[in-house]
Amino acid sequence: MKTVNLKNVAAFGKLVGICNDLGASYDPSKAALTPTALATLLEQAQQQVQAVKRARTTFTLAVNARQETFAGINPLVARVVRALAASENSKQNVRDARLLKRKLQPKSNPPVASNTGTGEEGSVPTNSYSSSRLDYESRIDTFSSLLELLKGCEAYKPNEADLKLPALNALLEEMRQSSAAVDKAGQALAMARINRNKVMIGKDGIDETGRAVKEYIRSVMGVRSEVAKELGKLRLTS
Asked: Is the whole-model pTM more than 0.70?
């Protein structure tokens, strides 16, 4: 899809150039086919393609940042649970903490590849496990539940800075923010694609307009003219 859009914009740019080269011979009655209107449409198409490119990059960076934020969660939680087990008198509290830890761990079965997004450029491959608790929002919820449990355990007072509740709460907030950033970037990417598609294949977009321009030029110059032969080389693929 990415290559098709770039080729279509390039082809439309060449078509606009042909119209300009024809000078006074190119004089359509329809306002949308005038050189000025074509130049404006070409600029809009170029801008929307670039907007998708920028949005896709932002989305990819957000996904990467979230993956980095979540990367060390499992070993950290394992340390937290061991620290709790070493200090907590309530066996039930320790069991509950270990249960939450297990919810954060992937199953032993191999991951199944899946894709986010719409299947076109910008889709980011992820791994899907059989456990329903391994999506990012569920992992945030499980981690939050663990922190609530720790708050109720008066004996949990580790000396290690990264195991203390303030540090864990800060990490939880970072997890939430990184996940929200992915959602926001994903929505922006989807909207950028919608706006691009309107210009590319929507009503009065470059696909529809390009076909109309070709028909007009052929009607004026003839289907066997040199200009018509050049037009035949320009293909707008929807």
From this structure: yes
